[in-house]
Amino acid sequence: MESGTLSSALEREHREIDEGIETFVEGLAEGGEDTTPLKRAMEGLRRHIYLEEEFLFPPLREAGMMAPVFVMLREHGEIWQTMDRLDAEMGKGVAADPLRGLCAELLGRLEQHNSKEEPIIYPQADAVLTPEATDHLQSFIASGRIPEGWVCQRAQA
């Protein structure tokens, strides 16, 4: 896979998000209380879900990938709900066991989700999106921000 493809940029974001969560969990194991890596990872994950739902999934649906996109949206909702629970738990302070458990749950959900998204959705994104749509999405990946208050489609489901 070319390093400049859309799929490679999206996969890189997956790795960065996972690494942030893992760094936080490692810090907890060492008695640390710095939630910064986890907060950054979750901010990145929310942004990543936004870019997929707003820029990537609509053209893929139009190209006939309705069922795979539906699965991704459902899983985004489950991931989002797990992040909401992590936010609530962090609001109570840094209690290692509950946070470690929720981080393990989130990493498990991400592993299941990404193992489908990377080989099925992302190659189609490289094939289906117009050059203009690809450029727009890559620009967002480079510097875009999630709108204030945006919530993924299935967060409440």
List the uncertain runs: none
- Give the C-alpha Rg: 16 Å
Give me the strand/helix succession: HHHHH
| Averaged pLDDT | 93
Structural class: mainly alpha
The number of helices is: 5
Principal-axis shape equals elongated
Could you give the topology of this structure?
Layout: H1 6-29, H2 36-62, H3 66-91, H4 96-128, H5 131-143
Helix pairs in contact: 1-2, 1-4, 2-3, 2-5, 3-4
Pfam families: Hemerythrin
Protein name: Hemerythrin domain-containing protein
InterPro entries: Hemerythrin-like (IPR012312)
Task: Give a structural overview.
Helix 2 packs antiparallel against helix 3 and helix 3 runs antiparallel to helix 4. The chain has helices spanning 6-29, 36-62, 66-91, 96-128, 131-143. The protein is built from 5 helices and no strands. It comes from Sphaerimonospora cavernae. It holds the Pfam family Hemerythrin. This is Hemerythrin domain-containing protein.
What's the short story on this structure?
Pfam families: Hemerythrin. The chain has 157 residues and is mainly alpha-helical.
Keywords:
mainly alpha; 157 residues; Hemerythrin domain-containing protein; Hemerythrin-like; 5 helices; single chain
